[in-house]
Amino acid sequence: MFAAVFTGTATGTAGATEAGPAGASAGGWTCPGTPVPAGYVITAFNRSGCNGSGSWLQEPARDGIWTCAGSPIVTGYVTTSYISTGCSGVGSWLHNLARDGIWTCAGSPVVSGYVTTNYISNGCSGIGSWYHQLVRNGIWTCPYSPIPAGYRSTTYNATGCGGLGAWYTVRA
């Protein structure tokens, strides 16, 4: 059922008792299979909505909003905390705008122009956390960190990034 919610494989929006009129244009309470509009996230789940199929609340993304597991992550945002019991037991992620010096949960996107520079294995409720910084000449980056155009990795340090190793990154 959860896959259908986010891929749009189920049909229709009728029966979302919380939604008011069926077929609302953007956001609000929706039934499984309703596409999430660009710039929106899923913030709540009601198991009894949509005649027992469950209904999902879609809202515009904003800094500091909690979203349900499986919600899209809007461009420019990262996930910074996780609660496994949130969103009626589905799990919740805290979405924040990317900024220099922010810790993100494992699996969060790395926004363009940023690199990961440290790692804590037990961060983000045990999922792991990555430290994001704006790229600059002479920064140490973690393995698998994106390296923006105009930069390259050189020297390796096995003890960097919380023991995962780190690469010295310089302007190309």
Number of H/I helices: 3
Q: How far is the N terminus from the C terminus?
A: 48 Å
Q: What is the helix content?
A: under 10%
List how many beta strands DSSP finds. 12
Notes on the structure:
Helices cover 8% and strands 38% of the residues. It contains three helices and twelve strands; from the N terminus they run H-E-E-E-E-E-E-E-E-H-E-E-E-H-E. The strands form four sheets. A three-stranded antiparallel beta sheet has the order 1-3-2, with no helix packed on it. It has a three-stranded antiparallel beta sheet with strand order 4-6-5, with no helix packed on it. The chain has a three-stranded antiparallel beta sheet with strand order 7-9-8. 34% of the residues are buried.
Identify the notable features of this structure and list them briefly.
about 170 residues; disordered N terminus; 3-stranded antiparallel sheet; elongated; mainly beta; about 10% helix
Brief characterization of the structure:
Helix content is 8%, strand content 38%. The protein is mainly beta and 172 residues long. The longest helix has 6 residues, at 2-7.
Secondary structure topology:
Elements: H1 2-7, E1 28-30, E2 40-46, E3 55-60, E4 65-68, E5 77-83, E6 92-97, E7 102-105, E8 114-120, H2 123-126, E9 129-134, E10 139-141, E11 151-157, H3 160-163, E12 166-171
Antiparallel strand pairs: 1-3, 2-3, 4-6, 5-6, 7-9, 8-9, 10-12, 11-12
